[in-house]
Amino acid sequence: MRDTGGERARRLFDERAASGSWAGLYRGPSTLRSHPFQARFTAVERMLAQIGSVECALDVGAGSCDFAPLVQDLGGWYAALDTSIEMLRLGRDSKPGMFVQGEAEALPFSSGRFDLVLALGLFGFLPELGPACREIARVLRPGGVLIAQGGKRDLWSRLGRPRRMDPTAVEQPVPPRRLDRALAAVGFAPVLRRYVDFIALPRRFRERLPRTMIRASHAMGRMGPLFSPLARSHVTMYRIPAV
User: pLDDT tens digit string along 118-169?
Assistant: First the structure.
């Protein structure tokens, strides 16, 4: 049987769940390793605060369901879908909601069921963006919101010799323009973008002052294009038109 990207991703996250290496990355002590996750969490938290309320939310590629409390704080019912059953077990043991093992390209939900979809840590693991984008658009209600995350190669790699994407890698970069094009094809328009995880921050400071680095990362992200070349990750809010 051919070893697909989805199968490799499933094995990778099953192994991470079993090893315990995922615990605390979003809400535990701030460390150099956890900085990208916590900066992403902060960006999503502030975007959701702008929405104000949620009725039904779907977290696609939910992993250990770390964003569930943010949805539930807004009064929303939370559903999580992930290819890794082991990651889902980490979430469902401590968080209320629905937890489903499945694929983003074939969401087992009725059309128009959700007013919010989260896709944080999804698109970089997909061989093609189009099928998942179509499914997300299908399950969202008219006027619904998608909050998605993507990434790109770090600045030093981009300044050096150009490299093609490694087809054997589990995760591939998904720059903003690529994600925007894929989502525009199914009707989404970007509303707000935040850049996070800035490699301009010196490593020695990130190691000694991780909480300060998270705040600095968010401040740089609010400046948008000015510091975007230095960012390794982006979080974007999209909206699908209301009928």
Answer: 999 899 989 899 999 999 999 999 999 999 999 865 544 444 444 444 444 4
Q: What are the helix and strand counts (H, E) for the chain?
A: 9, 7
Q: Region of 112 please: left (phi>0), alpha (psi -120 to 50) or beta.
A: left
What CA–CA distances, in Å, run from 99 to 45, 50, 81, 82? 21, 26, 6, 8
5-239 maps to CATH 3.40.50.150: yes
Question: Alpha helices, DSSP H only, in 60-139?
Answer: 68-73, 85-92, 130-139
Kindly tell me the burial class for residue 74, based on how many C-beta atoms sit within 10 Å of its own C-beta (0-12, 13-18, 19 or more): middle
Give the pair of three-digit tokens for residue 83.
């290819």
What are the residue ranges spanned by the domains of the chain? 5-239
- Strand 56-60 vs strand 77-82: parallel, antiparallel, or unpaired? parallel
